[in-house]
Write a structure and sequence with these properties.
about 70% helix, about 0% strand
Length: about 350
């Protein structure tokens, strides 16, 4: 297993990365709550160090509220909001940022300690540093997203929201990949067939595309319209899906078309994952842990499909909306695990 020096080193690194992955999932959940409660624009400054200290006195709170009232969200959408109402939305955005800072410490401090003590295997050093850089970029991307809603239009850019959410999933998937590589693979393991690997890469590619369009749905608030299934208010293809010019813009900027694409991709994924399960369970190279990885992916995909349907028809209740986002992150993890199991044998 590369040059990990002892079983204790392996165990400690696995526990550390496991804690980090759990905190990322928590961040994804709190980020979902922040978005669905429209709390994300309540903090109008970015102070990576000083911003960790919350308002304590009434004067502190009034200062924060006065700052908020200078920006379009208050002036256009929340005119007359009370200080007590402001405290509620401020709480979720503050908690989200605080968790981000704590996550950075939980990652960076043990990394420095393990490095100094010589407990990190040589092959992991640069990849773990890259994880630290990705985490820092995620913080910058979060502020870049918030800034887009502090101008004339009091809504964040759905492109920047997609980038912020997507980067969170990338960090989660990347660190999970490093964690999985600490488990040895048998050099005698039978390689997965080309057909099996083809199915895996097809499904994972579609999952990535689906997650991007799910972020567009969230950023455009497209889930709050056409809350019927399987048809959209009686239409298989809704009217006004093509009202933007040039035509391609509808796929990314028109909430009607964006929701339709998310539905269509979700349905296609459901069908394909069932077909893949039916085909691959007959493949002699898909057994044991590989079959377990595929089964986990299939179960999560089916559950996510129906969770998405109920989230839509019940008009995005907070609990379901957050769960839908968290399960999407878990599907990214299941995708990484499946790729890990289906790739070549003999890798650590």
């Amino acid at each position: 297993m590369h040059d990990v020096k002892s079983c204790e080193d392996v165990f400690v690194i696995r526990v550390w990365l496991g804690v980090v992955l759990g905190m990322i999932l928590l961040m994804v959940a709190v980020g979902g709550i922040t978005r669905l409660t429209d709390s994300g624009l309540s903090m109008v400054t970015w102070e990576p160090i000083l911003g960790a200290w919350p308002p304590v006195t009434e004067a502190d709170w009034q200062h924060r509220f006065d700052q908020y009232r200078q920006f379009p969200e208050y002036q256009q959408l929340r005119k007359g909001m009370s200080l007590e109402e402001f405290k509620v939305i401020f709480f979720w955005e503050y908690l989200h940022r605080l968790l981000g800072r704590l996550l950075g410490l939980v990652y960076a401090v043990p990394l420095a300690w393990f490095w100094w003590r010589g407990r990190i295997p040589r092959w992991m050093k640069l990849p773990l540093l890259a994880g630290l850089v990705l985490g820092g970029l995620q913080g910058v991307m979060g502020w870049y997203m918030v800034k887009s809603g502090l101008v004339d239009n009091p809504y964040v850019s759905h492109y920047r929201l997609a980038a912020h959410l997507g980067l969170a999933f990338i960090v989660f998937s990347y660190l999970l990949w490093l964690l999985l590589r600490t488990w040895p693979r048998s050099p005698h393991e039978v390689p997965a067939s080309g057909a099996a690997r083809g199915w895996v890469y097809l499904l994972v590619t579609l999952v990535v595309v689906q997650i991007v369009w799910g972020a567009f749905v969230a950023g455009l608030n497209a889930g709050f319209m056409y809350n019927t299934f399987p048809k959209m208010q009686g239409y298989w293809i809704p009217p006004f899906w093509n009202q933007l010019e040039p035509l391609w813009r509808n796929a990314v900027d028109n909430p009607i078309a964006v929701q339709w694409i998310h539905r269509a991709l979700g349905t296609a994924l459901l069908v394909l994952v069932l077909v893949a399960w039916a085909v691959l369970r007959r493949d002699p190279t898909v057994s044991g842990d590989r079959r377990g990885a595929l089964a986990l992916f299939v179960v999560l995909l089916i559950g996510q499909f129906w969770l998405g349907v109920f989230t839509l028809v019940w008009m995005v209740p907070l609990a379901l909306g957050v769960m839908h986002q968290v399960v999407a992150c878990l599907i990214c993890g299941a995708s990484v695990y499946m790729i890990h199991m289906f790739r070549g044998a003999g890798h650590a």
